[in-house]
Amino acid sequence: MGGCQFTGEVKEAQPPIRVGLIADVQYADIPDSHSPYGTVRSYRDALNKVGFAVKDWAAQSCALAVDLGDTIDRRAGAEADLASRTVLSNFKGFAPVFHIMGNHELSALPAPHPQLLDTAGGCAAVGHLDIDCGPGGYCCDIHVGPGWKVLILDTYDVAVKRNAAEARALRTRLLREAQQEGIRAAYLTEHEEMNGAIGEQQMGWLRGRLGMARESMQRMVVLSHAPLQPEATYYGDAACWNCHEVSDLLDSFQDVVALVVTGHDHIGGEAVSKGGIHHRVLEAAMEGAKGEPTHAFLELCPGNPGLRLVGRGAVRHWKPADLSVGETEEEAKKGEEKGAGDKKDDEKDDKKDHKKDDEKDDKK
Length: 364
Ligand SMILES: [Zn+2]
Known about the structure:
Bound molecules: zinc ion
């Protein structure tokens, strides 16, 4: 394993701090289906994806891993609880793993679900890590090593499945404000269980944690299920209801926040915020090629920018020096045959051709 030299900065060859990532595992014991844009969704192969990930995270000596949410698929129906126990047991080859609550968990499982709470909600008990649990128990700030923190946000803090009246009132207010400002806000109009918001208390906690990180000159990677930039999503609809408010707060700590990584929008995407922070949506595990890994890990090193994202299978690499779309491992191997950017554009066009509006409702 290489040392901390990937950003071109000359650093002592110390190993980077590694943090495993996987998004949208969506396990269910149901047959494959297709996404609206033509990819195969393999709900059962999701268990293999978890198997590949935990082995790799262990081999890379990751300090921890974060499952970005939607660990089960709501189509598991009455079997959702069994599906949850099955997929969580497949994560046992690596620890600690923090499981973020996604919309599928909220829709399919009785809330709050204790097994998913265990790692995020019971985070104070996670061994060697210095963790501050935020309000509600589904968000936390983790000191992962010298100079680096990973902060997990709960983008379903205010959600129809948790507090229906409050959620609907907030959604209505945000939609009215967006309409007044002429902002296209598909993330507020899609079916109400798909997205949610970060509440006032969590916003206050986030502000406090960002301030403390600044004071102690630590940098931070922010993780959540729902994206915080609608521009990073394929249809512009799979984002946190108050994404602009949250993103603006992060932008005011642009010296602290090095990267935002989320799940929820399966194709994977990216955008740069007004303040220059890179937002990355990780490719969904259950839409990766069958029998192939689909996960990632972060490498964190001293200095600025001091980080990169290493993708496996369909998950594209990313590093700050190259803000364009990265290559997957497969594309890197194919090399010069065709430019990776061209290829990605072609793939996007293909996906657009497959888009069917009447299937949009079923896409997350
Ligand atoms: Zn989701």
